[in-house]
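#data-curation
PF: Archiving a pair of folding outputs for the training set. Convention for this channel: one message per protein, sequence first, structure tokens after, nothing in between. First:
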Amino acid sequence: MSKLEGGIFSRPRGKTGGLVFGAARTQQGKTVTSRLLVIPANPRTPAQVTQRSKVTAAVNTIRQIGASTYSTVFNRTVGQLPGFQSLMSAITKNEDASQVLSAPSVLKAGSLHFPNSFSVNSTVAEEVELAWSAENVGGSLGTDVLNGFIINANLALAASSTIVLFDSNFPARDDTNDAIDASPIAGTGDTVIGAFWFEGENGTATEGLLSPVHWFSQLLS
């Protein structure tokens, strides 16, 4: 029902019956307008259904990655987009019609050095093995810590497919290797997508600094 919020001498707003009242600005100021109420069609074409499914899977995954990560690590990494939108762009552009994700390209985030050599492997069942070089260049320190997450590439499983790594035991740059148990999210023969970056440790000269984010794809043994 339309309303006269300022009494009988005010402009109506809202809808009554089949009419929708609004306001348009002319050279003389705002004037009351009305139009027929039209309910938008929802044809649910295959392309629309596919796109909605992709967006839903991406949103579910990003929510699990968490605001503390996407609002800092991924902020403004795609153009000038905020973290959530940056990740949405990266994931939806690399997600196929079946909601299967391939590794996005590097997102340019931060100035801290990322190792010249960084490898991902899986020689132990349902495990992701990481190895990296420990050169300290550009002000980076051996105490810088590795952070990141892995995702089951099948984003249709996003309700339970994302884990954040190193919650309690962050490996340092000088450690040069680590292994992650992927069994909570994926099994042998599944593909996982990983995103990894280095952060300055609290209380050191690199505190608050981030390296670029690198993405990897790995088939699990």
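PF: Second:
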Amino acid sequence: MIALMGGDLVLPDRMLTEGTLLLDRGRIEAVEATRVEPAGARIIDVTGCYVVPGFIDVHVHGVDGYDTLDGGHSVGHIAAALVRYGVTAFCPTSVACGPDDLRTFLGQVRQARVEPDARAARVLPAHLESNFISPDYRGAQPASCLRTAAAGTSDNGAYSGRDVLDAIERARPDVGIVTLAPELPGGIDLIRALVSAGHRVSLGHSGADFETAVAAIEAGARHATHLFNRMTPITHRAPGLAGAVLAREDVAAELICDGFHVHPAVSQMAIAAKGPSRMMAITDATAGAGLPVGSSARLGGRPIHVRHEAAFLDDGTLAGSTLTMNRAFGSIVTRFGGSPVDAAVMCSTTPARELGLAGFGVLVEGATADLAVLDRGFEVIRTFIAGQEVWVNSAARADV
């Protein structure tokens, strides 16, 4: 048994100061309101720290120089690196790519899930940010890889997506989320087909108007990719895709919580509008996350450059973030007006619920003991997966 003693425990509905969390056999054995030292337990003093449920990032392309489409064992390297940032589970995320690269990526995801590294973050089914997005809202995604769901060739020159859909069909258990633009030819039908096959459809990289977005939600879309980014903006007479997402309770929205992709005031308004229980903090991190400013890395094989705010292509196009989940948690608390409870809900509880991960994302008795310990500056001190300590910061306090 492990006893995390004296920390501020961030529970689903409140923060319990100077409590004790008991971990045993991979589960949370008990949540105690006082300092408790069970006989025979390993006692870890976490006084002055937050104890939070492990972060679940549903949208991450890479970290520490590794990109999900690098090939080799890149997904495994990302999983091993993410525990440094308090992440205990994640959806490896791809940009639009050719079917061969997609198959290679999904093969890595399968291997990482079948043969998990006990000291690495849990690898969840992938998030395909995918080939079925609008050319006009593609951002840093390669235009040459875009497809439509309709047969033949569309007016914008994109070919049918049958090759990509075949790759998805062959790897169904390892494809969780598929981002698409519903206004594309065949888009609404594709939503219905993907939902029927068990995938979670996310709306994003899209020029959809409000009415088309509502039709997509009615067809089964339940997720929105990086709210406000690469979608039609909200105006008072044309609320667009973002307005539909904010108006509909049945859609959970991703929010890049770096204060750059979305202004802190707008982030605060969006969280107030939907509530933390319908918002998922994400990083949209690239391989540049964790690297020094001025470094170069890759996104889907294309070079990107790390600046103070985010990552950018050679031509200056914004190409994802350099955010980590512990910093997202900190932004919610220090910049967006949220409490540590709100931040834990957005970083852990809501993603777990939306992905159907029962017993994850909360500090309650009987839940899986995936958690992180953060200092007051929101740096990760310790990370636990299934009750086992998988990462310790060199600045961590010694055990009692």
